[in-house]
Amino acid sequence: MSSSGKEEVAVMESYPMNGGDGTFSYNKNSNFQRVATNVARETINEVIAEKLDIKQFSPALTTFQIADLGCSVGPNTFLAVQNIIEAVRRKCESQGLSSQLPDFQVLFNDHASNDFNTLFASLPSDRPYYAAGVPGSFHGRLFPKASLHFVHSSYALQWLCKVPKELVDPNSPAFNRGRVHYTSAPREVSDAYTSQFAKDMVTFLHARGEEIASGGIMVLVMPGIANGIPYSRVPSGVMFDLLGFSLMDMAKEGIISEAQVDSFNLPVYAPSPDEMTALVESNGCFSIERMDLAAPGSKIDVSFGGHACMLHLRAGMEGIISKHFGSDIIDDLFDRFLGKTNEFSDRLNSAYRQGSQLVAILKRK
């Protein structure tokens, strides 16, 4: 413990989405995440109606605290919290609390490097809640003990807190030569990713176990994969393969070096329902109310291919790619990636039909 009484938290690597409101911004290119939010909405509504007991928190609860972890810059975070608040209000009314509805406070969390200016400039003017920003990594403690009643995180937990060091060690069996991810990689590479994700989830669940009040609910929405299915068969896996192919083409032409590609790995992981179940049960603080796998890609119009796919990936990955390779290659790289999406369109379209979104709904014991 530090002298301030707060736990010391290690500084985690940060991978912010593209800020602002421009052509390649996350704000303009997060349609896939919006579909994902809509797919999860019905499940969230059902769990709040069936499992949330407002009276358990306090006989006269005055403030209902909601945290959105990995909020990015909007607009999807606003849709998610609005839906949560509406569902909680309905639950209050069903419990006879219509005359004493609590105030709602939403705590928007992301790394300090996130574009909070864009986030807060686009807050809905008619929002039925008080808003605050909480900078920091959700892999550690962020909030006071037992202070949260509802935690939401959508498409954020797939980011590892760091790249496993063995991936860039030429002497390690997990050295990931010529690839940027564990998609289509040897078993040692995927094992290194699996191990890092497990470590991250141990610290994440421990922190949330401290922060969420007994009876509180946590909704985690993230890329996932069916038990026993290779990651190369889900949309993001295909995209990461195509990104790696594009970078290796540039290396063969001498635009970048192969060593630069070998030392670059995307710190992104998609767990299976079995993996998440084991991690939650090992933590012991939460009961599992739902652990569902959905296919949000099947609800996207077929026009989400090619150009839209490129914009989606660029909005999320341009920052981390520029940091490693420099910004000069970005336009060329994503032009090449666009060509690959057309070349491998059958593989990409097939992947969209796979279950690739994990929704874990947990209740604090």
TrEMBL record:
Keywords per UniProt: Magnesium, Metal-binding, Methyltransferase, Transferase
Organism the protein comes from: Eucalyptus globulus (Tasmanian blue gum)
Higher taxonomy: Eukaryota, Viridiplantae, Streptophyta, Embryophyta, Tracheophyta
One term of GO molecular function: metal ion binding
Protein name listed in UniProt: S-adenosylmethionine-dependent methyltransferase
GO term, biological process aspect, one: methylation
InterPro entries, per the entry: MeTrfase_7 (IPR005299), MeTrfase_capping (IPR042086), SAM-dependent_MTases_sf (IPR029063)
Superkingdom field: Eukaryota
